[in-house]
Amino acid sequence: MFLIRPSSIVIFFENGKIDNMFWVFVGLMLVWTIMLTDFLLGIRKIPKLEHTVPSQTSELISVIIAAKDEEDSIHETLHTLANQKNVEIEIIAVNDRSNDRTGEIIDEAAALHSSIRTVHINHLPEGWLGKNHALKKGAELAAGAYLLFTDADIQFEEQTLAKALTLMKAEELDHLTAAPDLKARSFALRGLISYFLFGFGYLKRPWTANQKKPRGGMGIGAFQMMNKSCYQKIGGHEAVRFRPDDDLALGQKIKAAGFSQKLVTAKQLLSVEWYPDFKSALQGFEKNAFAGLNYSISLSLFALLGVLISQVLPFIFVFFGSPSVQIISAINILLLFCLYGLTTRSFTNYPWWMIFGLPIFALLFVFMLARALILTWIRGGIEWRGNQYSIKELKQFFRNSEEDHR
């Protein structure tokens, strides 16, 4: 039916079934109204780390970075970390089997800054993803009472760690995770980021991290600070060793174990270039897409169909439907724009007019997800940073890890 031109679709529905389409959009209107209300209530619970006034502290923070082929960004990351103010830190930079100058750059930085320690990994054990293994090896060397896991392409404002530790101590937190400013060079990449955050917001409900209930939870790889005892009690990275979404999985395990957790935004304190180009984004999506949908083919197909129906069809029927369908489609579009706009404003620094690209970004998401699923199916797993991982093993480990924290 979707291969027929829009005018033919309208005629088809007008022959006795247009009412069904109207009620589909009524149902969607109710869903988006609930989600918009949930977002408005939830986003108030996510504070800005920028509002914290830093205080001098003597506790040592061990910053652990996993870096593989990051020669373009690791120098700046180490530089901004080494220049943190009002805080005591050690930086453990783990070179994970890099094929470029990453290891050399880390060694050069360590020679300039006494706070930087270098670890070189040449072998990846079976049953581990590279990044997870590298972070685990770094954590084993950590001397600090607090651990900060971060990525090799993050830039830190000089008061970031002092503000984070001040907030952790003031609110007696076990885990603090922060959402950075996600930079992108092109309109398409910014659209993908904003659309990803839009879907992530209503599916994962990130504000659950700031509720006392053990359900939900959040972890963002750019910034995960926790006390060492919390990390050790949940099993560390051993507990998420085969999870591509290790950051989220770690945060959810911390939450499920009853530790105090908080999510903050830090758009003025942390920044990262999401992906340098569209090709890199496609490759990254291959790794995370299936994991984000719990390795379920049925859930993935439902997501594809759901996006088309809920976020593409209203933009078609607002022009080609009957008057009643056009009106309900317009209401759906208004609700979508409100939720999309609020999400974009809350988690990015992008301009408000990005919302008008929603149907295009939705179609782009459908293409990327379908492509990722097809490639995963053909390969029998995922390829990431030179390694192949079986979908059977990934799916089984996901099931086991989910059962462990229930």
From TrEMBL:
<keyword id="KW-0808">Transferase</keyword>
<keyword id="KW-0125">Carotenoid biosynthesis</keyword>
<keyword id="KW-1003">Cell membrane</keyword>
<feature type="transmembrane region" description="Helical">
    <location>
        <begin position="327"/>
        <end position="347"/>
    </location>
</feature>
<dbReference type="GO" id="GO:0005886">
    <property type="term" value="C:plasma membrane"/>
</dbReference>
<comment type="similarity">
    <text>Belongs to the glycosyltransferase 2 family. CrtQ subfamily.</text>
</comment>
<feature type="domain" description="Glycosyltransferase 2-like">
    <location>
        <begin position="62"/>
        <end position="234"/>
    </location>
</feature>
<comment type="function">
    <text>Catalyzes the glycosylation of 4,4'-diaponeurosporenoate, i.e. the esterification of glucose at the C1'' position with the carboxyl group of 4,4'-diaponeurosporenic acid, to form glycosyl-4,4'-diaponeurosporenoate. This is a step in the biosynthesis of staphyloxanthin, an orange pigment present in most staphylococci strains.</text>
</comment>
<dbReference type="GO" id="GO:0016757">
    <property type="term" value="F:glycosyltransferase activity"/>
</dbReference>
<keyword id="KW-0812">Transmembrane</keyword>
<keyword id="KW-0328">Glycosyltransferase</keyword>
<comment type="pathway">
    <text>Carotenoid biosynthesis; staphyloxanthin biosynthesis; staphyloxanthin from farnesyl diphosphate: step 4/5.</text>
</comment>
<protein>
    <recommendedName>
        <fullName>4,4'-diaponeurosporenoate glycosyltransferase</fullName>
    </recommendedName>
</protein>
<dbReference type="GO" id="GO:0016117">
    <property type="term" value="P:carotenoid biosynthetic process"/>
</dbReference>
<dbReference type="InterPro" id="IPR029044">
    <property type="entry name" value="Nucleotide-diphossugar_trans"/>
</dbReference>
<feature type="transmembrane region" description="Helical">
    <location>
        <begin position="297"/>
        <end position="320"/>
    </location>
</feature>
<keyword id="KW-1133">Transmembrane helix</keyword>
<feature type="transmembrane region" description="Helical">
    <location>
        <begin position="20"/>
        <end position="41"/>
    </location>
</feature>
<dbReference type="InterPro" id="IPR001173">
    <property type="entry name" value="Glyco_trans_2-like"/>
</dbReference>
<keyword id="KW-0472">Membrane</keyword>
<feature type="transmembrane region" description="Helical">
    <location>
        <begin position="353"/>
        <end position="378"/>
    </location>
</feature>
<dbReference type="Pfam" id="PF00535">
    <property type="entry name" value="Glycos_transf_2"/>
</dbReference>
